[in-house]
């Protein structure tokens, strides 16, 4: 029973870390897109 709890906990931590990197990547992409729009209007 303890092994299952530890496995589930590690899985949740891994998913959370992967989600953070994904959100950070989307934020960088949106920022680059905004910068490209700003450059095109100048």
What does this entry look like structurally?
It is a single chain. By secondary structure, this protein is an all-alpha fold. Helices cover 95% and strands 0% of the residues. Belongs to the EcnA/EcnB lipoprotein family. InterPro entries: Entericidin. Pfam families: Entericidin. One of its GO terms (biological process) is response to toxic substance.
| Strand elements, count | 0
Class computed from helices, strands and strand pairing: mainly alpha
Strand proportion: under 5%
Poorly predicted sequence stretches spanning 5 or more consecutive residues: none
What's the helical proportion of residues?
over 70%
Mean pLDDT: 80
Number of helices: 1
The largest pleated sheet is described as: none
Order of helices and strands: H
Family: Belongs to the EcnA/EcnB lipoprotein family.
GO biological process, one term: response to toxic substance
Keywords: Cell membrane, Lipoprotein, Membrane, Palmitate, Signal
């Amino acid at each position: 029973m303890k092994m299952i709890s530890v496995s589930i906990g590690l899985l949740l931590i891994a998913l959370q870390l992967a989600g953070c990197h994904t959100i950070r990547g989307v934020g960088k992409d949106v920022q680059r897109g905004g910068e490209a729009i700003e450059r095109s209007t100048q």
